[in-house]
Amino acid sequence: MENALFLNISDIHVKNENKERIIIKLKALIRHLNVFSIESENIFILVSGDIAYSGLKEEYEYVYDYFEELATKYHLIMCPGNHDHDFSVYTSIVRNQLLKAEVDSLDDGSIELITQGMDAYYKFDESLTTFRPDSYNKLSKSYVLNLGKRKIGITTFNTAWCSQRNEKGGDMSFPTKYIIDAPQCDINITMLHHPLSWLEPNNHKQLRNILRERSNIVITGHEHVEDSLRIESESNKCLMLEAMSFDDDWSDDNGFITFKFEENDVLIKNFKWQNEEFHEIKQIKQSEIIKSNSISTNNYIVKIDYLKSIKDIGVNFIHPDKDDLTLEDVFIYPNLKKIDGNSKLDMKKFSSDSILSGGNKKVILIGDEYCGKSTLLKKYFLDSVKKGYLPLSIDCSTVKRAGLEYDKILQRFLEVQYENLSLTEFVNSTATKVALIDSFDLIRGDRKSVELFLDKSARVFDIIIISVSDSFDFNGSELIGENYFDESFEKYEMLRLGYKLRYDLVHKWNSLKEECSNENKVLLAKNDLAFKTISRIIGRNYIPSTPFFLLTMLQSMENGNSLDVNAGSYGYYYEYLITHSLGSASVRKEELDEFFNYVKELSSHYFTNNLQEETTDNLWDFNLNFCQDYGVRIDYETRISLLVKAKIMEKKDGGYYKFKYPYVYYFFIAKHLAETIRDEKTIEIINGLVSSLGKRRSMSILMFLTHHSRDESILDKVVEQAKKLFKDNSPTKLDLNIKFINDIVDALPKLNFQKQDRFQLRRAYEDRKDIIEENNSVDKFDDDNFQSDRKEDEQAGTDLLKEMNLTFKSLEILGQLSRNYYGSLKVPQKKRLLGEAIDAPLRSLDFFIDYIKDETDIVLDAIERRISEQNGEKNINLTQLQLKEMAKHFLFQLVLGLSYTFLTKISSSIGSNNLQPVIDDLCDAHNSNSGKILKLATMLELGNSISVEHLRTILQSLDKNPISDNLVKSIILNYLYMFERSDVEVQQICAVAEISYNSVSKQIGLDKLNKNN
Question: Which of 139, 192, 215, 224 is most deeply packed, by most CB within 10 A?
Answer without folding.
Answer: 192
